[in-house]
């Protein structure tokens, strides 16, 4: 590699007097700009920018095309909330951020428009509008090393709506792990927050606050237009642009005796209502998969279910709509499954029954439906997971550590020693904390994700086999396999509550998409215990197949899937409506 970060042969091609050679350099630079090595990608884009000024029109045009191909893109590039009923507290739309890894590596977000907020999490941009004026004609801009892109955001309210407070908005925006949108924007009307007394003084609109938060190597950016009371702290003041006047909407004439026109409803095109989890889920079907299914995971768009079949060396791929099952053959015995945040890769931990040979992770191309490559890990990799930054965290059961891998690379990025022996890992992206369930230590390990350091161990019920973190990152539920109990941990204070009685041999846990309920798979009695996600109170017990192993909840919150190891099936549960 050269001092500029580019291969020497590419630099030679760039400086060549032969046009065809420089064209070959453009192709190579386009490949490097789209690659996972961010330093090389930056250097490649800079070189392409230089080649856009090449004396040859064909070279300059090819370089410009390559820059466009490797730039950040937003789909769609416009969000229209339509007519929003007066009093609507907030509406949300999700936009897909497309492009190479460089596109979102250190991207920042800015907003322009009253009541408009935005948050970037990996390849997904969440746009939130709190209606405060009759018209919205604003924009959200994402900028980074791969250029910039903008979404125009519009909407209107038939009459002036009362200003909304900030109550609950931050909690809504923290739910990064639940974001998943592909195709048209998803718009959700969120319920009003609980009433609270506002501070005295006029409420002013603020625009222009931009904060950048880095989760590992991936950017999570917040752009907010918030409230500021006139009597607030001057140190928190932000530049306030003048509020543009908006034309008044036509109203029915009261003098003419006409009844007031009804408030238009929110445009229903491409909308999805908020899914609320059920206190008592029901089994709505059973799907035959491979021999002895164990790990289960669902794609970010909720359309595909992946099942690791221990006795068949096969990963079952289930179409959630048609329930058609196809198979991907792996070279070793699959155990647990995780899916990348963009849904393009599936990670499968593997090891043989001697718990030594065959240890590794299969990286499966979800589009092609075949293994792309294999990662060599420590002995007995367990329930792996994908972190907020897109990195793959693999608990190594037999070595008392977690190994971390950067997506697209074949080598270990780092490792963290935890108490023996880690079974599962979960994340609070907002708090920058990771948690592992450590079976032999009867403890949950807390890891600082910024420094990669083990912070402390929290004692829990005997033999913790699994844990899950709530979508808002504030609660952790833990299954104590030998205690027939579950615990809850406050992810902020790290205080534990419980134990809460569940079924026999609780093997796996998961939170509902709204965080209001938790599901505990009881291998010893073929049931799933449903807990109140905040209090730990048992709300229902649901019968499933024989020897249930793992539960996964679809990101859209409607269905959950439980693998039944002795039946070679997965049970489909309706958990939200």
Automatic annotation (TrEMBL):
Ranges that cross the membrane: 202-225
The organism's place on the tree of life at top rank: Bacteria
Name of the protein: YncE family protein
Coiled-coil ranges per UniProt: none
Keyword entries, A-Z: Membrane, Transmembrane, Transmembrane helix
Keyword DNA-binding listed: no
NCBIfam families membership: beta_rpt_yvtn (TIGR02276)
SUPFAM superfamilies: C-terminal (heme d1) domain of cytochrome cd1-nitrite reductase (SSF51004)
Entries under InterPro entries matching the protein: Haem_d1_sf, Host-pathogen_enzymatic-act, Lactonase_7-beta_prop, WD40/YVTN_repeat-like_dom_sf, YVTN_b-propeller_repeat
Cited Gene3D superfamilies: YVTN repeat-like/Quinoprotein amine dehydrogenase (2.130.10.10)
PANTHER family: DIHYDRO-HEME D1 DEHYDROGENASE (PTHR47197:SF3), PROTEIN NIRF (PTHR47197)
């Amino acid at each position: 590699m050269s001092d500029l970060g580019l291969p020497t042969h590419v630099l030679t091609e760039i400086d060549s007097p032969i046009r065809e050679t420089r064209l070959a350099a453009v192709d190579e630079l386009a490949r490097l700009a789209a690659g996972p090595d961010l330093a090389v990608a930056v250097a490649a884009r800079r070189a392409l920018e230089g080649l856009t000024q090449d004396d040859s029109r064909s070279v300059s045009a090819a370089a410009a095309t390559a820059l466009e191909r490797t730039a950040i893109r937003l789909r769609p590039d416009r969000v229209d909330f339509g007519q929003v009923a007066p009093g609507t507290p907030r509406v949300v739309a999700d936009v897909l951020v497309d492009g190479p890894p460089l596109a979102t590596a250190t991207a920042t977000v800015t907003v322009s428009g009253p009541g408009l907020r935005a948050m970037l999490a990996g390849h997904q941009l969440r746009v939130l509008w709190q209606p405060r004026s009759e018209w919205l004609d604003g924009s959200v801009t994402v900028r980074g090393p791969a250029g910039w892109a903008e979404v125009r955001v519009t909407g209107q309210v038939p009459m002036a709506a009362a200003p909304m407070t900030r109550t609950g908005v931050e909690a809504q925006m923290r739910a990064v792990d639940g974001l998943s949108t592909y195709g048209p924007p998803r718009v959700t009307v969120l319920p009003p927050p609980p009433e609270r007394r506002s501070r005295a003084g006029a409420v002013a609109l603020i625009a222009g606050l931009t904060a950048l938060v880095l989760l590992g190597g991936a950017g999570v950016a917040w752009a907010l237009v918030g409230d500021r009371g006139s009597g607030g702290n001057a140190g928190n003041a932000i530049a306030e642009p003048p509020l543009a006047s908006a034309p008044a909407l036509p109203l029915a004439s009261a003098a003419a005796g006409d009844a007031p026109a009804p408030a238009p409803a929110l445009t229903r095109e491409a909308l999805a209502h908020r899914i609320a989890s059920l206190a008592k889920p029901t089994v709505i079907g059973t799907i035959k998969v491979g021999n002895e299914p164990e790990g289960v995971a669902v794609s970010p768009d909720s359309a595909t279910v992946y099942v690791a079949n221990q006795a068949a060396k096969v990963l079952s791929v289930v179409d959630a709509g048609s329930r058609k099952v196809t198979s991907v053959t792996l070279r070793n015995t699959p155990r647990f499954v995780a899916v990348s945040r963009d849904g393009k890769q599936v990670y499968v931990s593997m090891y043989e029954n001697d718990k030594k040979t065959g240890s590794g992770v299969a990286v499966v191309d979800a589009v092609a439906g075949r293994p792309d490559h294999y990662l060599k890990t420590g002995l007995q990799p367990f329930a792996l997971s994908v972190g907020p930054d897109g990195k793959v965290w693999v608990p190594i059961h037999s070595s008392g550590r977690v190994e971390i891998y950067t997506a697209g690379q074949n080598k270990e990025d780092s490792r963290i020693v935890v108490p023996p022996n880690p079974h599962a890992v979960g994340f609070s992206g907002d708090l920058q904390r990771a948690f592992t369930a450590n079976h032999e230590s009867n403890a949950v390990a807390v890891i600082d994700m910024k420094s990669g350091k083990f912070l402390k161990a929290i004692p829990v019920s005997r033999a913790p086999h699994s844990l899950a973190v709530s979508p808002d990152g504030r609660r952790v539920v833990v299954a104590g396999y030998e205690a027939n109990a579950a615990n809850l941990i406050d992810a902020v204070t790290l205080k534990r509550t419980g134990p809460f009685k569940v079924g026999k041999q609780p093997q796996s846990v998961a939170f509902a998409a709204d965080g209001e309920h938790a599901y505990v798979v009881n291998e010893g009695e073929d049931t799933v215990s449903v807990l109140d996600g905040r209090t730990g109170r048992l709300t229902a017990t649901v019968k499933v197949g024989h020897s249930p192993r793992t539960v996964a909840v679809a990101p859209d919150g409607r269905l959950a899937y439980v693998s039944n190891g002795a039946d070679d099936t997965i049970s489909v549960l309706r958990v939200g409506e």
